[in-house]
């Protein structure tokens, strides 16, 4: 991961450096800010290469951004962009499709080589994620992709799937830390993480193209993207409802808007079945709670993680880790 912030530059040079080196040189855009406000400017970003795409998270105080035709000629991109607004909101304009506002938590999509202007709506400035996926890396090749001017993601069902994939991609990237472990088990895990990242990036791009009418949902690529995204959302629904002892396939399938049979088919492509995923997530949650709350009763932890009885929890925990929960907790306390 590459990180940079304006703290590395003298205050009187920060905005000029951001404008000339970071905005124009790295992102291919023109940044503008009134001269009297430049001394207070602050900006930071991170850049990660994930599964064939580049994920940028950017935070900055208020300024305006333009990607003009001259900017595009200077730094062409030929990529699909998916934007996730994390701050107070943003405005896009200067396009043939008209202006629009994007709210916190919402998404927008575009081709990189379409002109636009943008500015944050709130006083807090910019906070957003941008996933840039080169068109050359996509299995779909359609000249209409070059015509995708920035637009909000208007399908709420697809937006929920997009959000799940974005969250999983962020977590998969975080799991790359410590990637130099030389054991074969660790390498297998890393290889799987890379595969997961690639499938998530492809799914995000194709979901955007489904929403923009370029990929059909029933096509092979559309179905693959929907399967990946629904599996991501199903896992997140499981994590959200771990405390519920009644967590079952029917509940998750209903919230996904698919049949129970289709839900099980999604998990057939994964490393673990639905029930194995639920048990694994409950066990991991119980381990976290034992570390974070060493005085909390194990029976209370088992109940809060959705286990139907303390006996069931002990049996499942011992089968998974070869020790009782109390022994796991004791080992953790010895290491303090």
TrEMBL record:
Keywords: DNA-binding, Transcription, Transcription regulation. It holds the Pfam family HTH_18. InterPro entries: AraC_XylS_family_regulators (IPR050204), Homeodomain-like_sf (IPR009057), HTH_AraC (IPR018060), HTH_AraC-typ_CS (IPR018062). It comes from the Bacteria. Residues 232-331 form the HTH araC/xylS-type domain. SMART domains: HTH_ARAC. Gene3D superfamilies: Homeodomain-like. PANTHER family: ARAC SUBFAMILY (PTHR46796:SF6), HTH-TYPE TRANSCRIPTIONAL ACTIVATOR RHAS-RELATED (PTHR46796). This is AraC-like DNA-binding protein.
């Amino acid at each position: 991961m590459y990180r940079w912030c304006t703290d590395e530059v003298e205050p009187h040079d920060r905005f000029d450096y951001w404008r000339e080196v970071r905005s124009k040189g790295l992102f291919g855009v023109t940044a503008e800010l009134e001269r009297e406000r430049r001394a207070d400017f602050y900006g930071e970003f991170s850049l990660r290469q994930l599964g064939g795409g580049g994920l940028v998270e950017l935070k900055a105080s208020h300024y305006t951004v333009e990607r003009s035709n001259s900017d595009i000629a200077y730094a062409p991109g030929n990529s699909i962009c998916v934007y996730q607004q994390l701050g107070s909101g943003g405005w896009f304009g200067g396009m043939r499709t008209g202006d629009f506002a994007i709210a916190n938590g919402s998404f927008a999509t575009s081709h990189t080589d379409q002109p636009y202007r943008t500015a944050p709506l709130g006083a807090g400035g910019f906070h957003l994620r941008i996933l840039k996926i080169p068109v050359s890396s996509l299995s779909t090749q359609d000249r209409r992709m070059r015509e995708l001017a920035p637009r909000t993601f208007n399908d709420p069902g697809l937006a929920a799937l997009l959000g799940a994939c974005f969250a999983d991609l962020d977590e998969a990237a975080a799991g790359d830390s410590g990637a130099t472990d030389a054991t074969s088990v660790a390498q297998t895990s890393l290889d799987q993480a890379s595969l997961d990242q690639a499938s998530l990036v492809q799914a995000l791009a194709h979901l955007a193209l489904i929403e923009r009418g370029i990929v059909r949902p029933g096509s092979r690529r559309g179905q693959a993207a929907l399967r990946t995204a629904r599996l991501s959302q199903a896992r997140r629904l499981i994590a959200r409802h771990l405390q519920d002892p009644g967590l079952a396939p029917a509940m998750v399938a209903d919230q996904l808007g698919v049949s129970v049979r289709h839900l099980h088919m999604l998990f057939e492509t994964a490393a673990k079945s639905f029930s194995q995923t639920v048990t694994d997530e409950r066990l991991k949650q119980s381990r976290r709670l034992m570390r974070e709350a060493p005085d909390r009763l194990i029976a209370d932890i088992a109940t809060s993680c959705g286990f139907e009885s303390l006996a069931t929890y002990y049996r499942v925990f011992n089968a998974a880790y070869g020790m009782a929960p109390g022994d796991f907790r004791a080992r953790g306390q010895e290491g303090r």
